[in-house]
Amino acid sequence: MVTISHCFQALRNRQQCALIPFITAGDPDLTTTAQALQVLDRNGADFIELGVPYSDPLADGPVIQAAATRALQTGIKLDQVLEMLRDLTPQLQAPLILFTYYNPILHRGIQAFFGAIVAAGVRGLVVPDLPLEEAEQLIKIASAFGVEVILLVAPTSSKQRIAAIAQKSRGFIYLVSVTGVTGMRSQMQQRVQGLLTDMRNITDKPIGVGFGISTTAQALQVKQWGADAVIVGSAFVQRLAEGTPSEGLQAIEQLSQQLKAAITPTSAPKTAAVG
User: Looking at the whole model, is its pTM more than 0.90?
Assistant: First the structure.
């Protein structure tokens, strides 16, 4: 199984910035989710982040919260999501990153959780409410299963804390560009550029920037500031939810193509990282 780290190295060798779209599993239904993953995989996604619906999504803004609520109301649970993924992930080139909160992991049992997600083809994990101080056990078990746990850096983090997070994070480091929850913003905060510079002086691990990116101009700006990956969530979730499922799939196809084109040098090959 090719790791997220290896895929980032391949992208760096081609001097490409990665595109990481995020969608919510089960919104509007799991059949559409499976189709959306395939659409994103064919249209510029280098990795794909899939959110598991959760009843208390503290890190999510209104668009993703609404999507999770709709999915939960139709009875979507983690087991159904993983069952769908088991048949699908062998068809995807882009490595799949699961986004879930810590309580469902503890409820299932950490060993059982990783066994289940590995069987479904998941290669990375983001747990937004996992404190650094409690991450070591999860990362150790995840590593034994071949899953890379990606830790988040808040824009208010001290340099000492950034260094500690960078040391423990696997795959890449997820830089949160804004204080607060996910959601589309009209412009990127300038301090992201300084944070990226500070992080470059601390670590050589890939850095992905997320929360608040929704346009091609914002994606390009973050790439020019030195990010290794651009993470876009609410813009994809909103488009997928609008109109019929077919219209939603067409909308995310177009957005994915536009975002990838914006961050890809015209002289660089546009093939996705091999997964």
Answer: yes
